[in-house]
Specification:
With about 240 residues, the protein is an alpha+beta fold. Helix content is about 30%, strand content about 30%.
């Protein structure tokens, strides 16, 4: 397995499990998420630094793969309903012409995307990908470009594109653009106002049933406390 390390937290992914652990402390347990187990279960547990035996672990959750698939199917239906009825109020279709008329410019980097810059900032060292502060400080050169049809077509495969208003009443306003395939609609570019990002996050959170959300929060707090994630800024 090869671990990726960020802010002293390592993510070690293998063919059957993901192990998450602190690299700066040897007195804390590590979190394991395993699948393809003989029991058919997906197992999430904390293992102490010096386990007494193979069963010495604190269980976080266990569930059958079939139960997970049923849950994801139900979640997919909820998500589809949310997308069809509520998300269009936050997302609006945009075209290159409308963006230009509203004085928006695409914020793009030179010599590769921001994602490429982030990838280069995590060079591999001793089998692990570690953040290089010097490379992270070397921000890529960026430009504000006209939102032409060609430029947006070239950006279709990017997860998101930023657009900044440079004139008029909305000067300084930021839009986050996504190329989406809406259900029962033609595909195209949609925009969400950056100021509405918190509303979007709450909308996604509301997709989960209340009891599931409470359970997830309880389990998350268990993991935070065990790995002392607040100590390294991974939790509030």
């Amino acid at each position: 397995m090869t671990a990726v390390v960020f802010q002293s937290l390592a993510f070690d992914l293998g063919p059957r499990k993901l192990v998450i652990f602190r690299t700066d402390r040897r007195d804390l347990p590590h979190l394991t998420i395993s699948w393809n187990n003989p029991t058919g279960e997906i197992d999430i547990h904390l293992t102490p630094v010096r386990p007494k035996n193979a069963n010495d672990r604190d269980s976080i959750a266990k569930f059958q793969k079939a139960d997970l698939l049923n849950f994801l199917e139900d979640l997919g239906e909820r998500f589809g309903q949310t997308v069809a009825h509520k998300m269009p109020k936050l997302f609006r279709p945009v075209q290159p012409v409308s963006l230009r008329k509203s004085h928006y410019r695409l914020f793009q980097g030179e010599g590769g995307s921001v994602d490429q810059w982030l990838f280069q900032s995590f060079p591999k060292s001793r089998g692990k990908y570690r953040a290089d502060p010097n490379l992270l400080r070397q921000l890529p050169k960026s430009y504000l470009r006209q939102p032409t049809t060609m430029r947006l077509a070239e950006a279709k495969n990017e997860s998101q594109v930023w657009a900044v208003c440079v004139a008029g009443w909305n000067r300084g306003h930021v839009l986050v653009l996504h190329y989406l395939n809406w259900p029962h609609r033609a595909s195209g570019w949609t925009a969400i106002d950056y100021d509405n990002a918190d509303k979007f996050a709450q909308l996604i959170k509301n997709i989960f049933p209340a009891h599931i959300d409470e359970t997830l929060d309880e389990k998350y707090q268990m993991i935070c406390n065990a790995l002392q994630l607040r100590e390294i800024g991974w939790a509030e």
